[in-house]
Design a protein that fits this description.
The protein is of the alpha/beta class. 44% of the residues lie in helices and 13% in strands. α1 links the parallel β1 and β2. The chain starts with 17 loop residues before the first strand and ends with a helix.
Length: 481
Amino acid sequence: MNTSATTMDGLDLQRPLKLHFIPYLAAGHMIPLCDIATLFASRGQHVTIITTPQNAQILLHKSGDPFLHFHTVDFPSQEVGLPDGVESMSSVNDLTNSAKVYKAARLLRGPIEHFVENNPPDCIVADFMIPWVADLANRLRIPRLAFNPFTLFGLCAFESVKAHPILHSGGSFVIPDFPHHITMCATPPKAMTGFMEPLLGIEVKSNGLIVNNFAELDGEEYIQHYERITGHKAWHIGPASLMRRSNQESEHECLSWLNSKPPNSVVYICFGSMCRLPDNQLYEMACGIEQAGHRFIWVVPEKKGKEEDEDQSDEEKDKWLPKGFEERNRNKGMIIRGWAPQVLILGQPAVGAFLTHCGSNSVVEAVSSGVPMITWPVMGEQFYNEKLITQVRGIGVEVGVEEWGVAGFGDREKVVEKDRIEKAVRRLMDGGDEAREIRRRAQEFGKKARQAVKEGGSSHHNLTALIDELKRLRDCASLNY
């Protein structure tokens, strides 16, 4: 990065930027934005993350970066009716409590604005789910960068569908005005599109979009498509997870278990922090995994609230498991209840496939490790990401999910049956020409991801250019003030 001197037009490119990062209260938003903040801090910029106390502790543990600064604002637990310590979407599992977290996030506007107004930065980097930051940045006359955890491919799909409203409800459709011919199995829920459209409208009015991905995965055709249809600049500066420090994660027992297994012999199964499949679907998944006959690590979210009774026995809590499942698979598989170090798991040579909900963070983390995917989207942009994985880049296979949900929890009208799950797992894990070619492409994209964040790579270059651009905006504003 060339910041060694002041340029002839008087701009001071050497003085560090003062940046405020404001993440949304959900793990899938907070963790990648914290990773991105770490990227800026690693380049010598002064970075402050503004969040609530519980979330600050989680992010501080995950980043392990001594150069990150945190400013905390109290979470309004009593005002919204949530117990102390529940401060993110990842800690709830029903629409009622999700709405309470969303309301709490809006109530944080006052204290965050107060801090920013009294400690004005050179730029605010805020999650697109916090739209009021646009007014704050305009009032302070400072640049605003939007962060969206989605792939740019997924955002392009959202924008194309928004620009060409689908006239029917339900059923399949072809994404209109798109670089590839992509047929979706179902129409996005109206509740989702109605919620997303105004947020994306505010997002594209920012000074730029930060993408936690690398340009080679989304593809130049989609970068150009996005900028053409929105007039908005997208900055691919990831995968930021490749810079994350492991801290105590490396001590997790599953890693030593994986170390004892042959290469490409284990299926890793995880649906993120906000997807909780109903018991009847978990039962079918267990049967399908067992029928496929391959080793596995399966991360199952802990049940919370009404779903869980502390007085229940372990057998009652795991009533969704087929009888004798864990005993029969004691030497073949491992079930992790709660959290697991996903980035480190995906980086283990023993992992040969990732059965995933296609959340954007999981997709980028799998690609970064060169692991092919078995796709099982649940909600949101995940159905678009599935097409990027399977049709456009050819680094995964589809289970064949047809129900596009509004949320990641609750009952489903359609259950994915065990035979379909078994077939998808075998497609990647049993070998054969198709599996070998998919694995080869996945490993090639893994190499591209790692190259992108190194000096001379596309993401490294983009981050340098973005920092220089923000410094120019800062110093031009000072000269014109």
